[in-house]
Specification:
The chain is an alpha/beta fold. The chain has one domain: Maf protein, CATH 3.90.950.10. Helix content is about 30%, strand content about 20%. The protein has 5 helices and 6 strands. The chain has helices at about 10-20, 45-60, 95-110, 175-180, 185-195, and strands at about 5, 25-30, 65-75, 115-125, 135-145, 160-165. The chain has a 6-stranded mixed sheet.
Length: about 200
Amino acid sequence: MKQIVIASNNQGKLRELEAMLGPLGIETVAQAALGVEETEEPHDTFLENALAKARHASRATGLPALSDDSGLCVPALNGEPGVHSAYFAGREGTREERDARNNAQLIERLTPLAERGAFYYCVLVLIRSADDPVPLVADGRWHGTIILQPRGSGGFGYDPCFMPDGSRLTAGELPSEQKNRVSHRAQALSALAAKLK
């Protein structure tokens, strides 16, 4: 399995996954480069959405597919934004505009609350073919706190508001190499790599 299609059009995820998979000797191609549109994510769990995305990309390309479904979970908000992280504050605008609105809404909802703990969650699904009955599944969690004054321009999504446990920097301030060693996605990919071996 030398080449796999990445079932995402999220440029931030693509950059991170390519950087992490390259050293494993896995060549990746983004689904958009093969003319594959994103599929719907109608499910209530990260796992179901990831599996749907992987099957869609594999079916359209005939290649093994890797998908990531991930998001920010805030226990004080009953797990929100959760699987709706990308569209927490609506679907209008560019990804950058949505990220800004999502962060603003998160801060507004958490401002009156004392408890601001959160975690990023990532599930990765790797399938060898569209009908693979035994997909490889791995997940990871990255715990931290939401800060009310966003900091940093790195990363994407909620990174400027997310302060990882034990860090004085937000995920938006961390150098990408460091983030790619400790994040939820890095943990999930490490677990997946162990299964591939």
